[in-house]
Amino acid sequence: MSEAITRSATTSPGLLTSLEPLLREWLPRQRWFAGKGRPVTGFSLVAATELLPVTTQLGLYHLLVRARQPALQGPGDCYQLLIGTREALPPRLAPALIGHVDQGPLAGRTVYDALYDARPAAVLLEAMRTRARIGALRFDRDGDDSGGEGGIPAGLVARMVTAEQSNSSIVYGDTFILKLLRRVMPGVNPDLELPLALAREGCPRVPAPVAWIHTDTAGTTDPDAKPNAEDSYVLGVLQPFVRGATDGWELALRELAKGEDFSAEARALGRATAEVHLALARALPTVTLGHAQLRPLIDGMTDRLDAAVQAVPALHPYAPGLRSAYEALSDLAAEGQTWTAQRIHGDLHLGQCLRSPSGEWSLIDFEGEPSKPLAERRLPQPPARDIAGMLRSFDYAAHSLHPRPPGWAAVCRAAYCAGYAEVAGRDPRTDPVLLRAYETDKAVYEVVYEARHRPDWLPVPMSAVQRLAAPG
Predict the structure, then answer these.
(1) Which of 59, 195, 425, 442 falls between 20 and 30 A from 126, CA-CA?
(2) Residue 45, in any domain of the structure
(3) Of 80, 113, 146, which closes a domain?
């Protein structure tokens, strides 16, 4: 086994003060910034690591910073930044510009988002390849080194993926893809935890983590400490890159535009989902939900509905019918029915699925809903929640084409459930009360989201609300 490369890392005093005026303007403009609509009033430094010393050519800092915003409870969201420094930026890096520093240890230099730059991106891959320890940053891999440096070859050319929103990704030579989490939280992150569990279970439907980046903000250098320690931040996960793959959303829209049937793909996607659910149930504990355990889930759905009605008045006429979906589930539980809860994907939709050129489907992005605390994302839940998310996604795809093809979503929904049943041995539609409750909860969330961010899309979830609120 190769030895981990360990070196201390120092940062100049006043580094954050030097950057703060620029970050205050730059950070809110980034697509992955969660606090839009509120100004940033300041920053606090969680951790700082110098990855490349500041020279006349190139410097590189890894920062974890908290952004302070008015009317935001708690200490503020923590963001991961890779800050490059140069005397001047070449034209190819113009989109990465953060600004020109005029004070502090970086005075006179230009700073930029280093993920756009191939050389800093290569520093991250080399650190994972060699299991480096740099200050509080730790670069780890799963398994042994029988393949030589964990099977990660040196010198792969890096390029940033530009089509992301909540995180950032770098592709290395069409061999690996590194997902870097931008808004980070301390604790066990399901985006690493679940793919690792699935890999050890031998599930081929999820690309197995090759390496990952994490940090202990206490600065530990213990080489045997686990990446899932509660005082550790998971910062990034390296996985195999599926060459030539198309995500399910793009594929569905392409087939819709051509007037092609998508039911065979929907059925295959149902089978893939069931394989992942079964593997997660084998790998991690499951629990039984009776009336007492289900009560908090139903209360949460009801509370979200009440808040949504206040936020979007168009929901008001449908509120009694929507509430009946939750009451029906509560009634079943009161009669003694139970359900099995387990670890699930947590945010499943067509965009979280990849179809390889050979036709195989993979599920990706197990982070869950980024706005929720990690502890909540890691709770066991009925698989119906994932299934409801996918059913809603077919509805969204159908509404993206004008005029909307009649029956397309219904055919895909049925095919997906049938494919799921082929593997799981149970059709989700045989538990219509549970499925309706989760689909209702998802549609209510969508109404609020679209009303706030994409009003033109509001008719999509509202059409589902009308259907779900109708008497059974």
Answers:
(1) 195
(2) yes
(3) 113
